[in-house]
Amino acid sequence: MIATQVAIAPARTQAARLAWLDALRGIGAMAVVAEHMLPWLMPALRPYWFNLGMYGVLVFFLVSGYIIPASLEHRGDVRSFWISRLFRLYPLYLLVIGLVLVMAIWVPVRMEVPRRPSSVAAHLSMLLDVVHMGGVADPMWTLSYEMVFYLIVTALFVGGVHRRSGMLAIAFGGAAVAAGLVLSAPLLPGEWPAVVTCVIFLAGLVCLISGRFRTTAAYSLGLMALVLLMFGSYVPWFGAAILAVMFTGTAIQRWEAGTGGLTPVVVSAALVAASPVWSIQAGWWWVQPDVWITTMALAGGTFALGMAWRGRPIPGVLTWIGLISYSIYLLHHPLLRGLNSMMGDLRGLPAALSSAISLGYLIVLLTLSWLTYRFVEAPAQRLGKRISRSLRSPQEASSQG
Q: pLDDT per residue over 376-388, tens digit each?
């Protein structure tokens, strides 16, 4: 009994220590929901001095940059890391794809999604945006950059150069500025990048998990991700800027651990802020310097506030929303499209009625997200852990036990 209590106590301490990250995920998820919900339900409340959705996405990317490399390094095992990632991301992702396809009976799939096999390939690899393919659910584009980050971080880890996060943040920030000056469209056009990428991705994952040709696979996948990021993305400067933000999150974690300084954080932030200023592809309202920099500052400030709040009690509602944030993120847009299809244009309704519909939508969204977390995400993650344990060699099990 005492041994059980001792084992449970560190787990609870770890959960409490990382509660601020869950809170940030919750804030990011709800910001993205607000960005998509307000134009359809309460357009007068949508801010234009910063971009709510991009603010939420940047918070997410900073959190991923902070925690993902640390998770891989803590595990010290590429196989268990990738099994964890696959069982974390794909079950709900595939469920939402199925939901959207069923809804297509009365809500047509987004026009940005090609009706061709290349689209299937892009969805299988999850590298949608970097092979210039639209996702069946609009928010899926960010998963492309999460996957690119995982592939690059894995290659760096296998190569033993994973601690150079500050340099990488600056390098991607510089690449964002340079790409904006010279690139106006993907240099790898057409459908073939999606198909070729899917084949390489699936073969590479088999190697990473099986252990056969693992080093070659890690380097190949990392190089593929880098090439796609810079030459296959819809907006190359933006893709590089996202990776700069993610490695900035890693650099912050290095600084916190005492293995790096804050100079790379400042330099990369300045480069990301400047990246759309002279870019050929910078005609959207949310990348104008004042809006873009304000959005970045708010996201960075939110992350800094979350770090400062560590060790203090975190509001339970924020950690709960953070726990189900992946479900919220993927489900909210299909639900909005379904609501719009059923009820038509809601923008001209009286404020009281719009507020009531918005509240009802949020209640349904949070309820469904809790259910999908409870019955899809959590069981899948537990299964992934069991599979990881079953594949460990006796030496690995003893070293990590």
A: 999 999 999 999 9
